[in-house]
Please model this.
Amino acid sequence: MTLLAYAVLSLSNMDKKVRVRFAPSPTGGLHLGGVRTVLYNYLFAKKYNGDFIVRIEDTDQSRFVPGAEEYIFDTLKWCGLIPDESVQHGGDYGPYRQSERKESYRQYAEKLVKEGFAYYAFDTPEELEKMRSAYRTEQNPSPQYDHTLRDKMMNSLTLSENEVERFIGEGMPYVIRIKIPTQETIVFTDMIRGEVQFDSSLVDDKVLLKADGMPTYHLAVVVDDYLMKISHAFRGEEWLPSAPVHILLWKYLFGLENMPQWAHFPLILGPNGKLSKRDGSKYGFPVFSMNWTDPKTNELTEGFKEKGFIPEGFINLLALLGWNDGTEKEIFSLNELVESFSMERVHSSGAHFDYEKAKWFNHEWIKKSGVGTLKSGVKELLEKDGFIVSDDNKLEKVIALVKERCTLLPDFSDQSSFFFKTPAQIDTVSILPKWNTEKQQFFRELIRTYKLTTIWNAHETENALKEIAAAHQIKAGELMLPFRIMLVGGKFGPGVFDIAEIIGREETILRITNGLTFLAA
Ligand code: GLU
Model:
């Protein structure tokens, strides 16, 4: 077997301008793995002052899904991973949508045919099916169009030149297939996996150009990576089996010295193997970046954004799904990631997705985020839940006070609703066992005192309560629970005097008064 040591040639692309691409097919919502591919590409590009390109790979028109392209750009915007070149951002290497580059691919396919690296194939779908059933065995349940069978099919390897010309002249539909060499070991160096080898005999003769003149993914990806001067091609592990085809195409068309350096990112694993959309609905966690509604079925798949993740948390959890900086450090801002990221530290084995851990990242980022960053999201959320949030200053104080307790954005609603709405009912059950006339009298006096207090803040309200408690010979500790429940409605929330300060004198007095009524009922 010939060993083609392609590896050495692809090692030194760092002397080129770094240009990486994210090349999604617009077929639906973006899965965690897809967004992580975006992120790692982005980090690498920014680390080396390179360009991050987004190329829409829509050559398979049968898989086109309306709305999927917009969704991809909305996700990038939400995450703050802004491309340098794309359909939406322009650039010197456009068009950035493959369907608009249709005309540029045929010449490369024809060149391959002329040089003996590809051939025309005229087999009809029926003939292909016939071949599959004729050669199907137990060991080989789905025979491929490859070196073992191509000599038995209708193609320019088996037909005479005249026949081929005639068929084409008569307008007979045909595809162009790559002629994969037999018995070659195809080797390349993956930046994460090191040397990877393939036995060419196991690779089928992939279609490069379809009967409608559209290239397949395999041809288009290689041609476009070349024309767009891509220095590094990074993608998910599921594309590793396609690598030998791409490497051969690079060798035949452009010479291996121009080939980008490859890296294939590890799979993201859910509770049962590869993380799937179904895992999300089964276990109740998001798998897509943002909500996605399948336009055909109307099925809604929930996204991290709508679940209440903030971009900083989402980016951080994604980055750590398959990478670390070699220390115990887990919390990274996007800028810190750009600084610390290295492809060599991306793991080659599958990365386990743990939803509890994902939420932990978000919690840490909510705690770390400034009030200004959180304000608009929280306001939107509270208003959606029917609260009137007209006082910006109050909203800021509330956010600062409760953010420690919020893991996901909707937690802000639960944790702060009582700041904006007088409780319609309170948890009297938790107060009544220790409720008595003395405490009742205490709260009546507290109302009188609060009415007269000159300064209204947490400190003064606390002092007043303690003084009256001492005068009534009741331990202040015993009064805190009823006081909290009167103000909040239940046994939760931040410091009770902070709450009193924010809701204000009148509202505090109103809530104590209401509380006494509820308890007397
Ligand atoms: N169009 C492929 C996808 O949908 C891109 C694979 C690659 O990056 O080569 O993921």
User: Anything to note?
Assistant: The pocket of glutamic acid is lined by residues 23-25, 57, 217, 221, 235, 239 (CB under 6 Å).
